[in-house]
Write a structure and sequence with these properties.
233 residues; Rossmann fold; two-stranded antiparallel sheet; homodimer; alpha/beta
Chain lengths: 233, 233
């Protein structure tokens, strides 16, 4: 418990959640470099590409033991594969979808997940019209079968794409049955015990934030019509 | 330009982006209270529900002129309607989807958006099998028609659900043609001018972060098998 409170642990080091949230982005950029046959990169070049400071990059990567060499920069392939290991992407994960509606089906149909080792093995729903169907080869089961399935299969992550009214109670059941993490698309915050790992994707909140920003520009322009012109280069 | 740099403007006040990001969550909780016929609430009660401190709530809402009354708390309906106005949710928005794949289709099929005034009016794709179809009444057009459509219809937001290799170039076109905000689901960061409003939904990054957190627990447990027991109440 001492390890929590904003800081997390990796091999005896403390890594802030801000760094952890940036890791997938490093991984993505390094993957792009690899695809373009770029074998090494300085923190300065990477910094320009990623639009963060070089010192931030050095600091972030130092959390995991550095990887950079003075005067050479980073070995892209090595750094990519190390971050892959750190993120735990060197193995396959078993995911289930709870709620076979639009978003749930879209995620099952998203073949890129499988390429990365995120395998959706079952979908659960209450809708008799969906139960018994398959989506890209993945069976849709009655939620009544979910307990048995989760207890007999090591399920790493449950993807919650179900109505908000049911999300909390089902989330608690899933964790009790052995699911390790919840990827929550339901438009509600989950009230879980502190040690349950949750990542929220609140689509409506994200869109609302965007709309606020758009309106703010319009407000600024009407309050001070100069603002737009001033900001242009 | 002076208004930027972490701080944004609302009616002569400066509002941090952290507050703005929390507004949709306030709006959601207040909507829940209204649905449950709760007409007033203290910052303390709201604090318990939302799992943030009461002083944070008072500080956040003070940005918009307070709303609370000593000894009474907040009038839920009033606060809800004020935040609705602040977020600009008292009008209808015109959205287009660029990329009619799984996620794009799922968003068109998501009827809750429409209820909130987020109306998707067109989908654009390059796939001849999709062009000419309708998704829940929304036509799928050839991307070649997109310029004309955007220039003749006031498009507030383009939802980008297209392959990453094309996202940046199309995003720049859309903004040039008059789109005000980009809701980006493509797995790439958009390199836009500073004044373009962008919200990213990087699903794969979000899932990777969750997997890291799950693995971290496993690492902790193998390093120190006591951790789990200690953390249980």
């Amino acid at each position: 418990m001492l390890l929590r409170g904003g800081f997390e642990m990796y091999n005896e080091r403390k890594i802030s959640s801000a760094v952890i949230n940036r890791l997938p982005r490093y991984y993505r950029y390094l993957g792009d470099l690899l695809e373009n046959d770029i074998t090494r990169i300085s923190s300065k070049e990477l910094s320009t590409k990623m639009n963060i400071t070089a010192s931030q990059i050095r600091q972030d990567l130092n959390n995991f033991g550095g990887f950079g060499q003075q005067g050479y920069g980073y070995n892209v392939e090595y750094l990519h594969s190390e971050i892959k290991k750190i993120l735990g992407l060197d193995r396959v994960y078993n995911l289930i979808v709870v709620g076979g509606g639009n978003i749930g089906q879209a995620l099952v149909n998203y073949t890129n997940f499988e390429k990365r080792g995120f395998v959706i093995t079952a979908v659960f729903d209450v809708n008799p019209r969906l139960i018994g169907m398959t989506i890209r080869g993945v069976a849709v089961y009655d939620v009544d079968y979910m307990k048995e399935f989760v207890e007999n299969n090591k399920v790493d992550v449950a993807i919650l794409t179900l109505p908000r009214s049911q999300a909390n109670s089902i989330a608690n059941d899933l964790v009790e049955w052995g699911v390790k993490g919840l990827w929550n698309f339901s438009h509600v915050d989950l009230n879980m015990q502190e040690d349950v790992k949750v990542e929220n994707v609140h689509l409506t909140d994200s869109l609302m934030t965007l709309l606020y920003k758009i309106n703010e520009v319009e407000t600024e322009e009407s309050v001070n019509p100069q603002t737009k012109d001033d900001s242009e280069e």
